[in-house]
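Quick one, T. Sequence first:
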Amino acid sequence: MSDGKQAFRIRAAVPSDAAALIRLDERVTGMRKTEYWHDLFMRLHARPPADLIIFLAEPAGTAGADGRVLGFVIGEVRAWEFGSAQCGWVFGIAVDPEARECGVGEALLAHISESFRAVGVHTVRTMIARGNHLLMSFFRSEGMTAGPYLQLEKELD
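Structure tokens:
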């Protein structure tokens, strides 16, 4: 497209997408997490579809033929941890650096939010590293603010 925007579509990820998602995740995070991804796909197919969700964005018209993934979002519906009522958790989102500022991240977050809404969830939560300014800016631009819970941690010897 001439305006710098890419045409893309969003669809549910399937096991044959694992290799492409692993490559994109490694490109964005700098870490190869093959076992993590395979575990996610095993969980995805062992649980009700609304509980664990993986969506990906791919160039429009490719139908996955070239294996190129522009971005992904992972989340699940959780309830009652730490006294929290049912909510949707986004615990993974990434966009190919070459596809940033094309609306991919916004579309992925909107898509998973709609999936949460469809099963009666009214709150979406996530957690990010304090120093991840790019992701913080993204979530803030999407209307997310600090929530009612505070994360605590302790290093174990």
